[in-house]
């Protein structure tokens, strides 16, 4: 039933705005202490038998891997990232938008190759903020919807792609940068990760101006208080 709701909601967007195709965009890694923020862009080619597509947060790691493996038969999708250095340079919102813009630039040629050049494309971005790079884009009409990954099929597909690709990158990073547990925590603020930050300091892949500096400067705060604070920030 949930899958049917995702597909119906997306069809409703197409009908309301006259879109031929909806490209969903979502991100992963926005609340991480290290590594890139990664965006996915996804357009559904065949909505039949896509019950495996769901908000990535509601899927187990194994289910996400299986979903990504099945996705090419039902969608065209791309991913792109903004590095930890770009997070420091632009802030997390700016870096997220940069990753989204890169993913969409990769996605659009795939969309036109699949459906032809004379189609009306709608872009649905997960979140409350409208990305500035879409404001002046005459090729597409875009809308930002809070929790779109939970109600729009293409955005849910994008969330899976972004999450799986980023998690894979962080596992690889964990094999090169030891001691922080990147291979299991994907850069998020687990107990092991925070303790490593306090003893080793940040690595080259940590977001120094994001939350790491705050963690390092708040040694006096109880650990549980810090974890609760970081948990609120990731929501």
Outline:
This protein has 235 residues and is α/β, with parallel strands linked by helices. The chain has 2 domains: 2-171, Ribonuclease H-like superfamily/Ribonuclease H (Nucleotidyltransferase, domain 5); 177-234, no CATH class.
Can you tag this structure with a few keywords?
2 domains; five-stranded mixed beta sheet; 9 helices; alpha/beta; 235 residues; disordered C terminus; Nucleotidyltransferase, domain 5
Structural domains: how many: 2
- Tally of helical segments: 9
Counting helices, strands and paired strands, the structural category is alpha/beta
Number of strands: 5
Main β sheet profile: 5 strands, mixed
User: CATH top level of the largest domain?
Assistant: Alpha Beta
- The CATH topology of the largest domain is given as Nucleotidyltransferase, domain 5
Strand content: 15-25%
- Main-sheet strand order equals 3-2-1-4-5
Given the C-alpha coordinates, what overall shape results? globular
* Mean pLDDT metric: 89
Radius of gyration: 18 Å
CATH 4th-level superfamily of the largest domain: Ribonuclease H-like superfamily/Ribonuclease H
Query: What CATH architecture of the largest domain do you see?
Result: 2-Layer Sandwich
Low-confidence stretches: 219-235
Note the gap between the termini: 26 Å
SSE sequence, one letter per element: HEEHEHEHEHHHHH
- What is the helix fraction of residues, given as a range? 40-55%
């Amino acid at each position: 039933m949930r899958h049917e709701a995702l597909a119906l909601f997306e069809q409703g967007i197409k009908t309301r705005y006259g879109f031929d195709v909806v490209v969903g965009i979502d991100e992963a890694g926005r609340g991480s202490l290290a590594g890139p923020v990664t965006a996915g862009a996804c357009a559904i080619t065949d909505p039949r038998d896509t019950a495996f597509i769901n908000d990535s947060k509601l899927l187990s790691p194994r289910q996400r891997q299986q979903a990504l493996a099945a996705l090419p038969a039902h969608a065209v999708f791309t991913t792109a990232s903004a590095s930890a250095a770009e997070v420091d340079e632009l802030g997390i919102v700016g870096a997220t938008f940069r990753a989204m813009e890169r993913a969409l630039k990769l996605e659009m040629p795939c969309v036109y190759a699949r459906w032809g050049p004379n189609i009306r494309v709608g872009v649905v971005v997960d979140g409350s903020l409208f990305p500035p790079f879409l404001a002046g884009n005459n090729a597409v009409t875009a809308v930002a919807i809070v929790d779109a990954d939970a109600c729009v099929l293409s955005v849910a597909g994008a969330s899976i792609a972004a999450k799986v690709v980023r998690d894979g990158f962080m596992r690889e990073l964990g094999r090169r940068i030891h001691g922080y547990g990147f291979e299991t925590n994907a850069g998020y603020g687990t107990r092991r990760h925070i303790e490593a930050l306090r003893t080793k300091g940040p690595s080259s892949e940590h977001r120094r101006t994001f939350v790491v500096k705050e963690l390092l400067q708040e040694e006096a705060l109880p650990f549980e208080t810090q974890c609760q604070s970081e948990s609120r920030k990731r929501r």
